[in-house]
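Handout, section 3.2

Students often ask what a structure token actually looks like in practice. Rather than define it abstractly, here is a full record for Diaminopimelate decarboxylase. The first block is the sequence as you would receive it.
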Amino acid sequence: MDHFHLKGGVLHCEDVPLPAIAEAVGTPVYVYSAATMRRHARVFREALAGLDDPLVAYAVKANPNAAVLAVLRDEGLGADVVSGGEYRRARAAGIAPEKIVFSGVGKTAEEMRLVLDGGLCQFNLESVEEAEMLSAVASNMGRTAPVAFRVNPDVEAGSHAKISTGAAHNKFGIPIGEAVAAYARARSLPGLDPQGVAVHIGSQLTSLAPLESAFRKVGELIADLRKAGHDIVKADLGGGLGIPYDPEAPLPPSPELYGRMVADVTADWNVRLIFEPGRLIVGNAGVLLTEVIRVKPGATDPFVIVDAAMNDLMRPSLYDAWHAIDAVTPKGTHMTANVVGPVCETGDTFATAREMDGARAGDLLVFRTAGAYAATMASTYNSRPLTPEVMVDGGRWAVVRERQDVESLIRADRIPDWLA
């Protein structure tokens, strides 16, 4: 459920008409609903209500905007971060260090120092080599780092290959069969406190079966680690639960069903569970608002050319992702069209042969379900400035990231003396 609805024939975000935002800020522009984020955060936490003090650590990579983090902070969520930059964003937004989990396969010594100095809940380590680096950094600082190993259970997530992370050929984690030896090595290293196990098999999962399979393997590992003398008190089950993009596709499992499965599988683990939802919380809380530049005839279907492009919303080009496209002020007409942007790439295509509301030059459209992995993945390709972001909360709204200007792009370049 989201809070983007037609009122008086015009699409609103909560109580704000989208044309008002377009007129004030211009297009393209991302628009986020605070009410939707709050609702999704509460639904997820309610699904875990039967667990003992779970930590819900929002995956900052999904949408790192400070206003988004502040809304979720007020809902009691922590943060799952994968870089020093994300850690600094989370702390700047007021998220407590004891609610922050530091994941990621390529942590640097500088990032480790930053996070050890600022505090955290747990490092999720991805290799023995990373454990050795963290040991050296922590020892030099006179600190002890709480750690878990991310294990790779060799479970196919069933999602797009580029967002599947739990198969044996993926770069993430250590093979689960090597975990006992890895924990023994970590326990021998100074400055480390091995206290947890972590797993994350992918994103946009539409079935609970691969998650349950991975979690059962983690439960067996926890038992083996305890037999080997390790005091395991935390288990990070990652994120990945899918959300609906295409209304014609089967609905993903609900958070309630997910919570029941987790409660059943982990009933005898005796650990604090950690979760890393991202897309589930913010995906449906955002749209990309765009204006039609012109409609151009095509060989089969016309091209609806909009002022948003693949640099603003990369998911269709990168993953062949499907986003619903709706008119802001539908006229009751329909068309079959190819929706494309102005970037000089054939990949700058949002939809092909899409049945959609009739559109003409000057009309406003929205790409729905654009709150996650959208603005955060944007680029300045074709010297197109980064798109602004707007937060709506009831009847009030604010720009939460200004539109970048071309002059700032030019100023960032440097012409060497010999070419000046």
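Discussion prompt for tutorial groups: Confidence is low (pLDDT under 50) at residues 158-166. How would you have guessed this from the sequence alone?
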